[in-house]
Structures are given as structure tokens and as C-alpha cells.
Automatic annotation (TrEMBL):
<dbReference type="InterPro" id="IPR014729">
    <property type="entry name" value="Rossmann-like_a/b/a_fold"/>
</dbReference>
<keyword id="KW-0418">Kinase</keyword>
<keyword id="KW-0808">Transferase</keyword>
<dbReference type="GO" id="GO:0005886">
    <property type="term" value="C:plasma membrane"/>
</dbReference>
<dbReference type="InterPro" id="IPR052023">
    <property type="entry name" value="Histidine_kinase_KdpD"/>
</dbReference>
<dbReference type="GO" id="GO:0000155">
    <property type="term" value="F:phosphorelay sensor kinase activity"/>
</dbReference>
<protein>
    <submittedName>
        <fullName>Histidine kinase</fullName>
    </submittedName>
</protein>
Length: 223
């Protein structure tokens, strides 16, 4: 049975993205909604149209849809082919459904994107000043292949070298051309690994060997 708004007039929105933590977020949001006896909505946003999703993403969406029905959510909302920033989409949905509490996962944005694009949480808070935001920790046992190969990413910069290429620098200076995140390979004493940056709105990564960028042609011209 669908819930009607309780005496506290609360409304929960759970925002999920693709991965194994989506179900955990939905169940956490459902518990909050049950405690407050209020409506629950579940939202996922994707810039691509649904018919272009791969099999894995489609499976996640269908599983979440079934879970929404199982838990008595008011609606599972899929905003596909969405060109607006996710924070604006979430804000619009929150306004439309009179949402008072939003649940998201702590890895809604990875570390290097947060530094190069700005914190997703801060952007979201600017868009929705009228709601409470719950950031749920993810399962620490779930690690990506990258996490197992590289150390924790650190902020760094690229500066031009004397050979027309670039070198890593961990200090911001007038010579700095690009800012991004460096992931050092585990088990090496040298600055060898991967440097990641956002170029024209797209993710770009280049390999680093002993401080030197090995694929400078992938980077735009430094202004």
C-alpha cells in the first residue's frame, strides 16, 4: 500500500547510480520513510537514452524498479537522455514532489572529478537549500580494480618540461598548466602511475613514468 504523508509532512528521495551500492541506498531510504510514515521516491539520472544502456545498467534499473515496488515506494523515476547537470535534475524532482530529505551515496562522485569539477555535494546543497541531505557510506569491501593497483589519488599539476612535454608537480605555480589527480602505482618508489583530468567535459587519463607524462598528445594545448 502506498503511504500518505505522515504528521511530520516528510518525503524521502533516494538518488542512485549504477553499481552494487544502489540497493543499500534504497533500503536505507525505505527504513527512514517507514520510521516517518512518509512517501519514498527513487531517482536515477543518466545522460544517455535508456535504449543505449548496456546490459549491466539495464539490469540495475530493472532491479531497482522491482525493489521500489517491493518496498512500497511511490515511484521509481528514471531521467534518461538528460543533458542537465545531475544536481539540477535532483533539485527539480525534489521541488516537484515536495521532498524534505535526500539520500545519496558517498561515492556519487569520485575524488579526481570532485577536485577538477567541484564537489557534487556542495553543488547539490546550493541547488536544494530546503532539504536535509543524508550521505550514506558505501560498503568498504567493494573495491574497484583501480583501487587495488594504485594508491589513494592526490591533487597535482602538470608543468611544461624543456622537451615539449609535461612533468608532474605537486605545487601550484604560475608554470602550472593543468590540475588533476595522480594515482601512484603501488609498490614503486617513483612517481609512476596515472594522471587524470577533465578535458572539455570528458574524462582523460595519461600514463606517468617517473614524473613524466608519456602521452602528452592526449592533452589540449596549454594556454
Amino acid at each position: 500500500m502506498k503511504k500518505v504523508k505522515g504528521r511530520m509532512d516528510e518525503c524521502i528521495l533516494v538518488c542512485v547510480y549504477y553499481g552494487p551500492n544502489g540497493e543499500r541506498l534504497i533500503r536505507r531510504g525505505s527504513k527512514i520513510a517507514n520510521m516517518l510514515n512518509c512517501p519514498l521516491y527513487i531517482l536515477t539520472v543518466d545522460p544517455r537514452p535508456y535504449d543505449e544502456f548496456d546490459a549491466e545498467k539495464s539490469d540495475y534499473v530493472e532491479h531497482w524498479r522491482e525493489l521500489a515496488d517491493e518496498l512500497g515506494a511511490e515511484e521509481f523515476i528514471l531521467k534518461d537522455n538528460e543533458k542537465r547537470p545531475s544536481a539540477k535534475v535532483i533539485a527539480d524532482i525534489a521541488y516537484h514532489y515536495n521532498v524534505t530529505q535526500i539520500v545519496i551515496g558517498e561515492t556519487a562522485q569520485n575524488r579526481w572529478e570532485e577536485i577538477t569539477k567541484g564537489s557534487f555535494v556542495n553543488v547539490l546543497l546550493r541547488e536544494i537549500t530546503f532539504v536535509d541531505l543524508y550521505i550514506v557510506s558505501v560498503d568498504r569491501t567493494i573495491k574497484s580494480e583501480e583501487d587495488e593497483i594504485y594508491e589513494k589519488g592526490v591533487r597535482c599539476f602538470l608543468v611544461k618540461d624543456g622537451e615539449g612535454g609535461y612533468q608532474l608537480s605537486f605545487t601550484l605555480s604560475k608554470r602550472s598548466c593543468f590540475e588533476g589527480i595522480f594515482y601512484k602505482e603501488i609498490g614503486t618508489d617513483f612517481n609512476t602511475g596515472v594522471f587524470k583530468i577533465v578535458v572539455s567535459g570528458k574524462n582523460c587519463q595519461v600514463h606517468v613514468t617517473d614524473n613524466k607524462i608519456m602521452e602528452p598528445e592526449k592533452l589540449p594545448t596549454c594556454s
